[in-house]
Amino acid sequence: MSRAPPTLLIVEDDSDLRDALVEILTAEGFHAVATATGDEALTWLETHPPPALVILDMWTPRRDGWLLLDSLHLLPTLADMPVVVISAGEEKHPAIREVLQKPFDRDLLVACVRRFVHALH
């Protein structure tokens, strides 16, 4: 039997970018789940096994990326989960493994995801 594809959680408030990320990563063989806010992401994380990777836009409404990172970093079951941030800035936080600078291209995104997911699976 083949294993289920690794799950990626995308947190992005821009619906066009969110849909594009899901489409690209699904086409690459991942199971991509997307939320628009950090609050939605935390709700999803409370009811599902931890994803292989979180792709996080830092500036989402309500619970922004900073608050979500703080929440993840404090939960023992999620503290080691890799997080890749999408941002125009040079973001720093103990939970961030890499920052994808906006704008980024498809190949850079896929290479980044594969680097982290293949290290885990």
TrEMBL record:
UniProt-listed Pfam families: Response_reg (PF00072)
Domain of life from the UniProt record: Bacteria
SUPFAM superfamilies hit by this protein: CheY-like
Transmembrane feature ranges: none
Domain Response regulatory span(s) in chain numbering: 7-117
Entry-annotated residues carrying 4-aspartylphosphate: D57
InterPro entries: Bact_response_regulator (IPR050595), CheY-like_superfamily (IPR011006), Sig_transdc_resp-reg_receiver (IPR001789)
GO biological process: phosphorelay signal transduction system
Keywords: Phosphoprotein
PANTHER family from the UniProt entry: RESPONSE REGULATORY DOMAIN-CONTAINING PROTEIN, STRESS RESPONSE REGULATOR PROTEIN 1
The protein's name in its UniProt record: Response regulator
Taxonomic source organism: Corallococcus terminator
